[in-house]
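Before any further analysis, backbone shapes were mapped to integers, which produced the following:

***
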Amino acid sequence: MDGCAIIDARRRESTEPGPLWRANATTTGNVQTDAWKSRLHSGNTEQDMRNALVKSFMCDHYSKTMHWAATDRDPARYGIRGRSEYWLHRPSPTFQHRERAFFLLVAEKERENRMGSDHRTTSLAVDGPRAAATDGEAKAIKSLLIRDIKDFDQSVPAVVRHDDGTIRPTYIGVWGQDRLIGAALIQPALCVAETLIYRTGTSGVHAAQIREAFAEHAAIIEGIAVVRKHRREGFGSQIKAFCDSWAADHGAELILSIPTNEGARLLNEKAGYTVVPPDGYLTIKVFDAQEQPLHIPYADQRTQDRGTSMWAYKLVGQRTQHFEIGVLTAS
């Protein structure tokens, strides 16, 4: 509707059942009478008129004419009598009318955004971070991690285990408005222990002690994922802090992580982790109860054949009892 302030209500004979509304976008007074129906046609005559009026107040040319046509179903309701044309004139809208119409449209748009918008919002009622309480929550977390993290370890079952105070595979999630916003998996760093044992050729009692040290005192965060529309809102940092606190409460002395992109690297550095550059080596020494090393010197470098991959680590407390960690670079 291009600039409308005066309503032209007119009736025409029609063989079509029910009210038939037409509206044109010209200012010459012509009424379209072909089979095309206006977008304003909804079957609710009063609502159609109200919508048209509100839209007309927002037009640039307030002195132009809106043209309506209706069948003879209750024509007197609109000031139409008999079969001749009648013009129903209304004054141009005042500034207050236009202002009120504007705020009506703004309020309606905001309501639609609240109900179905995909835009990010920082006013979510957030529950978390916390460990998954049910197998269903654990499965939802695992699904998000698989979707967003390349090479995620899918072998870890999505089940909730009894918390006995030790490090066990645990799915962590953040929920808002009954929807999962962010996720993480933390578990014992046994994969690192097995690599160290294999590459150093350690066996027997010492190998068992290395496995025990990593199982009870070293945790690894397998990945942190946040749904796309809620990224850069601080949920990743919240999950990272919760994982660190959870690991420390369950006996961890060492927490490992593997950033695979620049955003993950910055997240680890912000959380107080030491990030090993891609061309650097992570050095690890494992000690027994008498503080004797259990293996020959070991250094591990992440390969870059499938994209960027770095080691990141954080020591819990001033001094660990079982590990000595360092970084070795070419320089």
Remarks:
- The chain has a mean pLDDT of 75.
- The radius of gyration is 34 Å.
- Helices lie at 45-57, 95-116, 135-148, 190-200, 204-217, 235-249, 262-270.
